[in-house]
C-alpha cells in the first residue's frame, strides 16, 4: 500500500511539474457574431480581432494551421483581444464582408470594444511578422474620426486627400471611390492634366456611374494622351467588368439572383456612354447568372446569342471556359449541344475562316486551341483526355 501511495505521489508530482500545454489563439466558438464579441470585449476591456477567411483560401489555412496555434501568438493575443473567425461566404459572413468591404483573403480586422474598426491588414505571414502587424494596426489611426468628418459633410481638399490615403491603405474600395469622386467633382473635363488627380482616378474610381468615369468613357482622348491608350482601355473594361459581377448575388440558401433594376440601369449607362461592345456586358452577365443557376438551356441560349452577334467575338479560350459547368451530372442533351458549338468552331478553323490561338496574352500555349477544343469535345462525350 505504501508503494502504491508513493507511486501515486511521484506520478502526480511529475504530472504537475510538466510545463503547461501550449495554447495558441483562443478563438470564440463557431457562430459567434461580431455583435456578441463586442459585448464580451466591453466586459473584459479588450479589443476585437477578426479573421476574415474562406474555406478555399490557401493562406487562410496556413495561418489557421501553423501560426494561430503557436504559444507565442496565443500569449500575445488572448489577454488583449476577443478573437473571432468568420467564414466570409457563410450566411452571416457574406453580408458582413460586403459591409466591411473585404476584397481579399485572409483579411484581419481589429476593432475597439464598440466594434468600430481601428485597423486591418491582409495576407499570410510568419508568427513574428503577424504579431508586429497586429501591434501596429491596434493603434487607432484616427480613421473613425476621419469617417466622422466625412459623414458630417467636410469636403476640404486636404482632409479628403488624407482620408483617401487611409481608405486606400485599408483596402476600403467603396469608401475610397466616394472620396475620390468628391476630389474629382467639377474637374471631370480637366483632371487628366493633373498627375495627382490622374492617379486618383486610375487607382480609386470603381463606380461606372461616377461623373469622372462617364466623362472619361465618352471622351478618353485627354487621359490616353497623358498615360497611354492601353491603361485607359483596361481601366474602363475593369470598372465595367467588376460592376457587372456586383449585380449578381449568391444568396445564403444557394440561390442566385440578378438585381434587375441595377442591370437595367447599367444597360442604359452603357448606351449613354456609347460603349462599342455593350452587348458583351449584357450577355456575359446573363451567361454568368444562368451558369450559377444551373439553367443550362438558358445558358446555352445566351452563348449562341453571343456567338451570333456580329459585333462580338468569343475567342477559343472563352469557348473552352464556357465548357466548365458541364460535369458528369449534367444532362447529356446539354453536353451534346455544347459539343456542337465547339465542333462548329473547329470546322471554321479547319476551313481557314478562323485562326487557332497559340498564345493568350503574352503566354504561349503548349498546343493550339483547336486541339484543346477537340479534346473538350471528347470530354463532353465522356472520354478521358488522351483516349
Q: Could you explain how this protein is built, in words?
A:
With 387 residues, the protein is of the alpha+beta class. It has four domains: 34-140, 3-Layer(aba) Sandwich (Glutaredoxin), CATH 3.40.30.10; 141-246, no CATH class; 247-314, no CATH class; 319-387. It contains 19 helices and eight strands. The chain has helices at 2-17, 34-44, 58-67, 71-77, 93-100, 127-137, 143-151, 157-169, 173-184, 195-204, 211-218, 221-227, 229-246, 260-272, 278-292, 296-308, 316-322, 332-350, 369-380, and strands spanning 47-53, 81-87, 107-111, 117-122, 248-250, 256-258, 359-360, 363-364. The strands form three sheets. The chain has a four-stranded mixed beta sheet, sandwiched between helices. The protein has a two-stranded antiparallel sheet with strand order 5-6. Strand 5 and strand 6 form a beta hairpin. Helix 16 runs parallel beside helix 18 (332-350). The radius of gyration is 27 Å and the shape is globular. The N and C termini lie far apart (76 Å). Residues 1-21 have low confidence and may be disordered.
User: How many H/I helical runs?
Assistant: 19
Q: What is the arithmetic mean of pLDDT? A: 90
Total strand count, please? 8
Radius of gyration: 27 Å
- Please write the string of helix (H) and strand (E) elements: HHEHHEHEEHHHHHHHHEEHHHHHEEH
Structural class: alpha+beta
Helix content: 55-70%
CATH superfamily of the largest domain: Glutaredoxin
Q: Per the principal axes of the C-alpha atoms, what is the gross shape? A: globular
For the biggest β-sheet, the strand order reads: 2-1-3-4
- The CATH topology of the largest domain corresponds to Glutaredoxin
CATH structural class of the largest domain: Alpha Beta
Number of domains in the coordinates?
4
Percentage of residues in strands? 5-15%
Poorly predicted regions are 1-21
Termini separation comes to 76 Å
Q: Summarize the main sheet.
A: 4 strands, mixed
CATH architecture of the largest domain: 3-Layer(aba) Sandwich
Amino acid at each position: 500500500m505504501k508503494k502504491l501511495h508513493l507511486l501515486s505521489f511521484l506520478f502526480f508530482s511529475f504530472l504537475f511539474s510538466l510545463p503547461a500545454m501550449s495554447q495558441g489563439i483562443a478563438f470564440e466558438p463557431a457562430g459567434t457574431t461580431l455583435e456578441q464579441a463586442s459585448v464580451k470585449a466591453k466586459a473584459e476591456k479588450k479589443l476585437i480581432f477578426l479573421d476574415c477567411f474562406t474555406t478555399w483560401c490557401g493562406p487562410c489555412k496556413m495561418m489557421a494551421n501553423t501560426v494561430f496555434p503557436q504559444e507565442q501568438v496565443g500569449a500575445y493575443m488572448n489577454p488583449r483581444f476577443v478573437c473571432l473567425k468568420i467564414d466570409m461566404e457563410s450566411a452571416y459572413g457574406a453580408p458582413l464582408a460586403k459591409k466591411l468591404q473585404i476584397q481579399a483573403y485572409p483579411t484581419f480586422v481589429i476593432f475597439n470594444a464598440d466594434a468600430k474598426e481601428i485597423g486591418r491588414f491582409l495576407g499570410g505571414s510568419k508568427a513574428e511578422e503577424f504579431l508586429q502587424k497586429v501591434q501596429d494596426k491596434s493603434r487607432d489611426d484616427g480613421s473613425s474620426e476621419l469617417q466622422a468628418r466625412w459623414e458630417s459633410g467636410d469636403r476640404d481638399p486636404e482632409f479628403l486627400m488624407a482620408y483617401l490615403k487611409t481608405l486606400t491603405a485599408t483596402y476600403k474600395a467603396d469608401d475610397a471611390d466616394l472620396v475620390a469622386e468628391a476630389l474629382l467633382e467639377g474637374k471631370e473635363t480637366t483632371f487628366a492634366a493633373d498627375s495627382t488627380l490622374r492617379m486618383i482616378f486610375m487607382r480609386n474610381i470603381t463606380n461606372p456611374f461616377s461623373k469622372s468615369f462617364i466623362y472619361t468613357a465618352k471622351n478618353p482622348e485627354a487621359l490616353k494622351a497623358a498615360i497611354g491608350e492601353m491603361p485607359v482601355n483596361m481601366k474602363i473594361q475593369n470598372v465595367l467588368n467588376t460592376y457587372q459581377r456586383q449585380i449578381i448575388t449568391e444568396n445564403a440558401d444557394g440561390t442566385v439572383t440578378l438585381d434587375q433594376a441595377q442591370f437595367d440601369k447599367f444597360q442604359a449607362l452603357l448606351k449613354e456612354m456609347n460603349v462599342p461592345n455593350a452587348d458583351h456586358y449584357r450577355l456575359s452577365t446573363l451567361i454568368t447568372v444562368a451558369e450559377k443557376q444551373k439553367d443550362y438551356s438558358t445558358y446555352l441560349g445566351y452563348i449562341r446569342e453571343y456567338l451570333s452577334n456580329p459585333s462580338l467575338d468569343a475567342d477559343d479560350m472563352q469557348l473552352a471556359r464556357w465548357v466548365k459547368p458541364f460535369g458528369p451530372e449534367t444532362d447529356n442533351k446539354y453536353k451534346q449541344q455544347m459539343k456542337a458549338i465547339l465542333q462548329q468552331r473547329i470546322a471554321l478553323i479547319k476551313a481557314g475562316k478562323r485562326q487557332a490561338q497559340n498564345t493568350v496574352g503574352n503566354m504561349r500555349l503548349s498546343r493550339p486551341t483547336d486541339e484543346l477544343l477537340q479534346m473538350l469535345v471528347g470530354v463532353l462525350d465522356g472520354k478521358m483526355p488522351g483516349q
